[in-house]
Q: What sequence folds into this?
């Protein structure tokens, strides 16, 4: 699930290409509140509003920010090689588009998301899916009482700066990932800063300045510094997949 962008005080909101007109009108209607600074509750409400038409927004996209969306999700599942004995945690599961790739193979999937409406849509599709409504950066891990063979995520973690990303990976590895387990993360990402800037230029006013898109060459370095080994695969103009493991696993 991708973010809608933070609207800061005295900043006119811009309509992003993947936000539908109906949702945009509600964003504009809340401008007075947003001018005081968007709170976490504001952001949750935006994602809740997006839940009904999220799938239509992303599945057929062929440009920034969702170019290659289906390919990225398919590749995550190919890398994980799901089987019935697995337990998988899906971070920011949204409406369950990534979880679907595992549930089809009877994998035991847990999904975490901070939008209750997104989770409601996921539960409509997959009634037996286990879900937890929580902020990924909050204190939620102890609620699971499980460890997972693999932790996956799609189009979520660009919401967080690199320090928050690395801290989250460390916490997840310590608390929820099985020995020899791995992270497989698909997101809006670029091999280099130059590649990012090229897409930024072509996207023009559709570019979201408030997100923290992955740059693979710097991410691999940060992972190495905190004891992870990582590799990256570019799959579209702005989408790619990371495989991250503890060093030595």
A:
């Amino acid at each position: 699930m991708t973010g809608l962008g933070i609207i800061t005080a005295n900043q006119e909101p811009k309509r992003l290409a993947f936000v539908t007109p109906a949702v945009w009108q509600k964003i504009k209607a809340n401008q007075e509140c947003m001018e005081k600074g968007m709170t976490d509750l504001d952001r949750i409400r935006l994602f809740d509003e997006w839940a009904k038409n999220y799938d239509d927004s992303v599945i057929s996209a062929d440009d920034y920010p969702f170019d290659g969306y289906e390919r990225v999700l398919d590749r995550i599942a190919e890398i994980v090689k799901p089987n019935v004995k697995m337990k998988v945690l899906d971070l920011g599961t949204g409406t369950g588009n990534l979880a679907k790739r595992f549930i089809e193979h009877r994998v035991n999937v847990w999904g975490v998301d901070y939008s209750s409406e997104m989770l409601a849509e996921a539960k409509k599709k997959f009634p037996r899916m286990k879900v937890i409504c929580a902020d990924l950066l909050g204190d939620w891990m102890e609620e699971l009482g499980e460890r997972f063979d693999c932790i996956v995520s799609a189009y979520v973690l660009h919401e967080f700066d690199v320090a928050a990303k690395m801290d989250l990976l460390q916490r997840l590895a310590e608390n929820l990932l099985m020995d020899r387990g791995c992270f497989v993360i698909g997101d809006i990402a670029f091999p280099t800063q130059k590649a990012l800037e090229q897409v930024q230029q072509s996207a023009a006013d559709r570019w979201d300045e408030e997100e923290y898109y992955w740059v693979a060459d710097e991410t691999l370095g940060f992972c190495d510094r905190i004891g992870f080994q990582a590799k990256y695969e570019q799959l579209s103009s702005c989408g790619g997949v990371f495989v991250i493991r503890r060093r030595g696993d």
Summary: The CA atoms of residues 120 and 127 lie 9 Å apart. The chain has a mean pLDDT of 85.
